[in-house]
Amino acid sequence: MRKFVFALEYEAGTNPVADVLADYPEASIRSLSCHVTSDSLWRVDHAEGPAEALEALEEAYETSEFFADCLVKDDCGADCEVQVLDRSSDTLVVYTYWDRTDVCTSVPHVALEYLGEGLLFETYREGRRYRWRIVLGNDAPIHDFFDALGQEVGDCTGMEMLRLTELDPDHGDVDVGPETSLPSEQREALHAAVEHGYYETPRQIELGDLADDLGVPRSTLSYRLRRAEESLATAFVAEDDSIEALAAER
Fold this sequence. Notes:
Layout: E1 2-10, H1 16-23, E2 28-36, E3 40-48, H2 51-62, E4 79-87, E5 91-99, H3 107-115, E6 120-126, E7 129-136, H4 142-153, E8 157-168, E9 172-175, H5 184-195, H6 207-214, H7 218-249
Antiparallel strand pairs: 1-7, 1-8, 2-3, 2-6, 3-5, 4-5, 6-7, 8-9
Helix pairs in contact: 1-2, 3-4, 5-7, 6-7
């Protein structure tokens, strides 16, 4: 099995959920499940962020022009069901389902057509960036899928191939392609923090001053650094645990 990671980047006005996430950098969405058949698609998403962002996201999900993951820019005529499963001050869980029409398509539908059945999907959305992870068979024609997806998304959505990983149960994931595991906004924030001495002791620059230099709100920069630090720390611990497990087997 392999894991293929890529990202879409939505232009302004092409996706209502991406527009809301761009307006609220502290908000993000990850998929809890995503399933596809040739005729339909259904998924459950978990959103986090400030209350006003979640209110805007809920409204975006329920707009009549929005069908989760549908790549058709105009109204495709699909029947869509949206249901809020859980709501609190800082989390929102949404179920969406839609029946496909003759003009509908989506990332999972293109994947189903080119990569076959038995796929596992995982997604993460932050700002206008929409990152996909697909677990698939070793012989699946990934480049054919990616080329076909590019034709479907058109000019309104950028695409970036991030990583192709072999899933090795004995040694963990083995990368066979370029590694860019962090979203670009988090990578840029982390690079700037290191270059300006934010992590030095004593600290060479304060967070507010660094945010001013980068031209972003202090809260946005703080959020991006925290998410990057969380991802790097989690990856480090996972790798460390794998090394200890291998040592214990010897």
